[in-house]
Amino acid sequence: MSRQDINRSGEMEVFVRAVELGGFTAAAKACGMTPSAVSKLVARLEKRLGARLINRSTRRLLLTPEGCGFYERSVTILADIGEAERHASAGEQVAGHIRINTSGSFGNHVLAPLVPAFIALYPDVSLEVFHTDRIVDLMEERADVAIRAGPLKSSSLTARKLGATRKMIVASPDYLRRHGVPRSPAELERHCRIGFSYSRAIEDWPLQSGSQMMTLPATRNLLVGDGEAMRHLALAGAGIARLAAFTVKADLDAGRLLPVLEELNPGDVEEFYAVYIGQGGPLPARVRALLEFLRENVRL
User: Fold this and answer.
1) Which of 82, 157, 191, 297 has the lowest tally of Cβ within 10 angstroms?
2) DSSP letter string over 231-263?
3) Residues 128, 102 contacting (CB under 8 angstroms)
């Protein structure tokens, strides 16, 4: 029998039970075995170790010096195994620390309003939320969950769809007063269109007039690294932006931003996913709870 085929912790547990209960018969009953099976197990153990562990008598078991040492170390090892298993099974409790990576726009406008309800539901969970629009390595950033827009590229990650949002072209009333309201794609092309400084799945601005589709590139003289920065520049009257509807909903409702060429909006959407490491393997209960909470409560 190879070393890999030996259940060493199982042998230790039977041996410790035999010593503590004072005999093979009692150990057999406690372990769900027969007395002869316990006797054979101890004999195999002694043979493999090359040392006698127990001097047998008709009434009780007497440990040899080697047996005493093996018993004491076995008790310690079994206790360590039990502690390790208890620590791992704590993952079944909705408790512990969750590190979330998300964009500034999603974090501020979608996630932040949901955080109080999640904390109230799971008071033993602590959340750490950090914002960035760049794609991060979850392992390197020690992130449990990332909220990302667009299709999943890495096969080492798993994604759960949270929903989709329309994209809208918007500008501040002040900008439109100063520069005029564009009434056509040609007029829009003459305006400052705020762009992103990083690569995106859809770089250009799509427009649709009847059956005709067209795209306009974002101008290169005003670039930003995240959606929230783009929103603030639009609010400040620096240019026209194309953003997720949830990002600008409150601003539209308050009149701080106005839709531009909405009649040419092709209705394309941006999908959002909760992304995490794991391809069907077990997840800690805290992460499962967060994913389920997001699935049930995110509204885009």
Assistant:
1) 82
2) HHHHHTTS-BEEEEHHHHHHHHHHTSSEE-SGG
3) no
